Structure formats: C-alpha cells, structure tokens
User: Fold ABC transporter substrate-binding protein from Pseudoflavonifractor gallinarum.
Amino acid sequence: MKYLPKLTAMALSVAMAASLAACSSSDPSASPAQSAGGDTGTQGGQDSYTIGVCQQMQHEALDAATQGFQDALKEKLGDQVEIKVENASGDSNNCNTIVGSFVSNGVDLIMANGTTALQAAASATEDIPILGTSITEYGVALGLNDFDGVTGFNVSGTSDLAPLDEQAAMLQTWFPDAEKVGLLSCSAEPNSAYQVSAVQGYLEERGYTCTSYTFSDSNDLAAVAESACAAEDVLYIPTDNTAAQNAELIGNIALAAKTPIIAGEEGICRGCGVATLTISYYDIGYATGEMAYEILVNGKDPAEMAIEYAPQFTPKYNPAICEELGLTPPEGYEAIE
Assistant:
C-alpha cells in the first residue's frame, strides 16, 4: 500500500497559555505546578485522549514494554488519558480485529507492541498516529526499501535491536571450541529472519558452521528444537516473540540434550538460555510513551520522528542453566534474577 503522512501538527494556544498564567497568579487555589508554570499536560492538546494498545502476545518482554508505555503516559497525563490494552495471543487475525476496532472507535493513537501488531496497524489506517515498540527493524517489518530511520508516514516508535555483531562475539566468548551453531527462529516473524541472517554472517566470519532451523508456530516448535539440539554444539535464538512465549519448552529440550543457548533478549534467556546481551523492554516502552505524549500534546508528526533505540545493552547470564550445564560466566556478566 502507499503510505501518505496525513497527521497535521497541533498548534499551541496562546490564549489558553495566557489564561493559565493569569489563573496561576491570581487564583490562590491553583496547584504548585500551575503556580510555578509547570507542565499540566494540556498545552496545545485536548482535554482527554484515548489510546489503543495492541500487544502481539503475552510474554515477559512485551508485557514490560506495555507497562513502561502506560507508566510514562499516566505520569504525564494522569486521568486525561485512557489506555485500552488488547492482547492478540499471537494470532495475526486477532491483531487485525483489535486494530480495526481501535480505528472504528476513533482512538487518538495506536501503540503496536510487536511486529505483527505493527503491520496490522499500518495496514488499517493512514490517519491515526501509530507508534511501535519491541520492533527489531522497521524497514523489514514494514517492507521499506532504503529505510533511513524515519518512515515518512504515520508510523514511528522504538526498536529492541541489540548489536548483532556483539551477540556473535558473545557466543564465541562462551563457546570458543564449538564448531556447529544452530540458528532457531519462527518463520512467521520477518525480523527474526533479519537477525538470523546477520548473526549467521558474523559467526561464519569467526569460523563457525551455521544451520538455520525454523518453526512455523508453537505447534512444530518442539520437533524443530529437538532436531537442532541433537545436531548442533550450541544454539542461537534471536529476539523472537514465539520463542519467547515458549522459552521454557525450549529450555527443557535443550537441557535434556545438554545443548547451550545464546539468546537475543533476557526473557528468552531466563527460560532457556545461558547468556544474552539484552535491553530493558520497560525502558523502550517508556520511551514510546514519551513519544506518544509529544504527538498528542505537542503536535509532533510521527512521519518526521526518528525511530529510537535502547541507549545501553547489558550482558547477562542465567545462573540456574549455567549450573546445570557446568558453565562459568566470564567477567562482566550480570546474573538474571
């Protein structure tokens, strides 16, 4: 489809600002924030806002991002904002239904948590501002050629992409004597394929033989994971929603085979991995909430807002799985609690 930016900037009301200033100087009942000229959360905006959140599925990382998003907006807007959170349970048809309902009800903004949710939202409306989070690569997710960090239409948001070259280096640090690496991911998630392709290149440069193992959904995941664990010295699992939702299942299979896993993010690592280079999903969700505030209250245009990335990445290890496999973490790794 052709995307055209249609969101127009909301102008600040000089008259309202003057009225508020007069109130703060003459009304003894004005709040301290108003008296000090503080942020009341209404400049240039409207009295209340309704936001629809479509979360692709339920697992630790996406839950944290949704919570961060809500916390940011509640802190800035309080009772002025109503946030409707709907979970699609990993079903793309559910994403379409949820987003369609948001559009029909005329929400002020849609937050899409997960790639499938973002794709559904972008297909449903060219008018309502859309912010994504937990999206690895927006160009891949939205089929954009020569993506430069700004979409040019009604979509922006935050990315959960960690440095893939550093994840490959992490695998070599932990398993320098391994020869064969299995790359396990869901074929229905385009951003997983993007990560696998990049990491495979970095690993092959380091001398590893790599094999990709893809599952279509949770129904064939166990069989594919068993094959991968039986054939490979170590597995790499990228940031992948279906893998995250089934991390404990993968972990049980991998531990039985004594096959270690390097994971793309902390939630997956907690369930099945030995180590990860991870971000805070709460933080990127919170940053997405701040972007939503800028759009709703200050009139920012998502077509011109650059995708934001996590500011830091933390190497972590899973103490329980490391103990089970007899592995000692290198220096500088933080234990997952």
Summary: The first helix runs from residue 14 to 26.
